[in-house]
Amino acid sequence: MSLTNREIADIFARCADMLQIRGDNIHRVLSYRRASETIRDLARDLRAISAEGGLTDLPSIGKTIAAKIDEMLETGELDFYNRLKEEVPEGLVDIMHINGVGPKKAKLFWEQLDITSVEGLQKAAEECKLADLSGMGKKSQQKILDGIEALSRQTGRTPIGDAKPAAQAILDMLMNLPEAIEGEIAGSIRRGRETIGDVDLLIASDNTEPIMDTFVNMENVARVLGHGPTKSSVELLSGLQVDVRVLEKARWGTALNYFTGSQAHNVRMRQIALDQGLSLNEHALSPVDDGKNIIEDAEKIYCDTEEKVYETLGLQYVPPELREDNGEIEAARDKSLPTLITRADIIADLHMHTTYSDGKLSIQEMAEACKKRGHQYIVITDHSRSLGIANGLSIERLMEQMEEIQQVNEAMGDDFHIFAGTEMDIKADGTLDYPDEILEKLDFVIGSLHVSLQQKRDQITERLLNAINNPNVDMIGHPSSRLIPNREPVDADWDAVINAAAETNTILEINANPMRLDLKPELARLAKDSGVLLAINTDAHAEDQLDLMSFGITNARRGWIEPKHVVNTWSVEKFRDWIQNRG
Ligand code: DGT
Ligand code: CA
Ligand code: CA
Ligand code: ZN
User: Fold this and answer.
1) Which ligand has the nearest atom to the CA of 358?
2) DSSP state string for 6-64
3) Same domain, 40 and 125
4) Residue-number span of the structural domain to which 61 is assigned
5) Alpha helices in 373-475 (DSSP H)
6) CA 241–ligand 1 middle distance (angstroms)
7) Mean pLDDT of the region 554-581
8) Same domain flag for 571 and 487
9) Whose CA is nearest to atom 30 of ligand 1?
């Protein structure tokens, strides 16, 4: 029986949890957790990579993990995992993920009360058996009951498109208080992850009480999970959990760095500090002796900015989007971090819809909305004829639209240009939705997958390659066609797609809509490294969606993308020259 990438990733994640409950070294725990994440994000089948002997070339996969992958590919099982299960009951993994539990308490309940399932834990809490355990009490027992209830209502992680505006609104409200000196969203939102477990807010202040009181009394709070001077947590009506931490400004840098994470980045940072005789935590850098114990009377180094933390450790400042221990520590040491793309570098948008298909605005309204946002040129790309549900354009209507674009161009003046394009369907049989003689008339052609997304890898790959290899197709839109959080990406041979895009000079899109973020960062980084051109576009169907560009920028930054890799940083002259001459 053969295991899929996903199943292997799940087994490693459970191994990490069980090792953590057992109390193993954090490095060992993280090696399994990071291997799990690498495999989950992988574009290719592990079986193929293993056959080429390439497993240990993957990030976070060493010889030990590679051997375990091979074992699972060959036998469908992992002896290490089976033996761990004999030692650590599997139900403890579910218990440790309850809000307010964690690995240490899971172990405590197991050892003291022989609890090995969520049901067992709930029963014990209801019978008031947890309150007497060391480090527990009535309050923490109730918190666990609340956590179990939350678990049953839980729908998983929240897309960043929902979590970030919610977090920003709360932060803005708290920053309006006179006591608040500085504030920032930390955690996975600051790093720009596509989904968010909980929101982490950080505020600098010398007077925490008014801030915490305001926070727990917000209108949209469903329940207060904690209310203290330095940390408070609430669950919003939406189900989203928000943690707020308040601290004095003098420690802002170390605190922001710690609570931004990722955990893996923090572990590396602490090791670098230790190598320099310093212990790094959220409060300060403290000198340690040879036994790595903090020297009590030695002077601590306080950092009021994150820049100072990195500088003290001899590192280049690492942008939050790179803090995943994916090579950024090494690059920061060598002072060779990329100069990541910013919103200010983008002066065009190459993918948007109007009332001709399923958009809300006319061509002229769209152009004006884009000009208002600082763009110098755009491409109008409505849906093609076979996409009936999106009101796709017949050839006649496409020709009409080209004429209207001409007219609007005259009305818009010299400092703005509208190119005529299409978002053409790559049909289920791999053929394209308009004939070449029509495509030749357009300035810019996007090929996208919208139908038959469940096809097997060979078919999907062939469809993408058909589009890429057509010289009239300039860009592939939202290449994996995933929808966050529910629709899986198509199964394609991404190496083949990226190589073909590089060879034919075809752009791969980074779709900025937070439901898409497609290409995802790992693939964008691979594409960039293979010399593929990228474009970050909103795919807007309405005016407010033009503001989703920032999510695409964040996603690109997570893929180490620089302005030079992105077409819509080019001047209109360079762009026009490229579409006319790319051949
Ligand atoms: P999330 O909430 O699952 O989307 O991901 P994060 O990264 O926001 O994680 P969260 O909310 O548990 O913690 C926020 C940050 O605090 C995290 O990125 C790093 C830091 N942190 C939390 N717990 C630990 C820990 O046990 N060890 C270390 N090194 N850092 C931690
Ligand atoms: Ca978080
Ligand atoms: Ca948190
Ligand atoms: Zn589309």
Assistant:
1) 4
2) HHHHHHHHHHHHHHHHHT--HHHHHHHHHHHHHHHT-SS-HHHHHHTT-GGGSTT--HH
3) yes
4) 5-153
5) 395-412, 436-439, 457-469
6) 14
7) 97
8) yes
9) 263
Q: Closest Cα to atom 19, ligand 1: which residue? A: 261
pLDDT computed for residue 152 by the predictor: 67
Q: Which ligand ends up closest to the CA of 226?
A: 3
Average pLDDT along the chain: 94
CA–centroid distance, residue 200 to ligand 3 (Å):
5
Same domain, 51 and 193: no
Give the position, in ligand 1's atom list, of the atom nearest the Cα of 157. Answer: 4
**Stretch (H or E) spanning 81:** helix 79-87
- How far does the centroid of ligand 3 lie from the alpha carbon of residue 429, in Å? 46
Closest CA to 215 of 178, 253, 173: 173
Nearest ligand 1 atom, CA 266: 29
Q: Nearest ligand, CA of residue 448?
A: 4
Side-chain-facing half-sphere of 534: CA atoms under 13 Å: 35
Residue 1's pLDDT is 60
How much is the average pLDDT of 427-452? 97
Rounded mean pLDDT, 10-21: 95
Name the strand (E) or helix (H) holding 183.
Answer: strand 182-185
Q: 3-state SS string over 201-254?
A: EEEECCCHHHHHHHHHCCCCEEEEEEECCCEEEEEECCCCEEEEEEECHHHHHH
Task: Read off the pTM.
Answer: 0.79
Q: What is the pLDDT of residue 40?
A: 80
CATH classification at residue 142:
1.10.150.110
Residue 553 pLDDT more than 60? yes
Ligand 1 atom 23, closest CA: 263
For 314-333, the pLDDT digits (tens) are 999 999 999 999 999 999 99
Residue with tokens 């002997």: 53
**From ligand 1's centre to the CA of 266, what distance in Å?**
9
Distance 261 CA to ligand 2 centre (A): 9
**pLDDT, tens digit (0-9, with 9 covering 90-100), for 278-311:** 999 999 999 999 999 999 999 999 999 999 999 9
Average pLDDT over residues 199-224: 94
List pocket residues of ligand 1, CB cut-off 6 Å. 187-188, 193, 196-198, 200, 258-259, 261-263, 266-267
Q: How far is the CA of 112 from the centre of ligand 3 (A)?
A: 28
Q: Are residues 202 and 189 in the same domain?
A: yes
Ligand found nearest the CA of 188: 1
CA-nearest residue, atom 17 of ligand 1: 261
Tokens of 207: 């007077």
Question: 144-200: per-residue pLDDT in tens?
Answer: 988 887 776 655 789 999 999 999 999 999 999 999 999 999 999 999 999 999 999
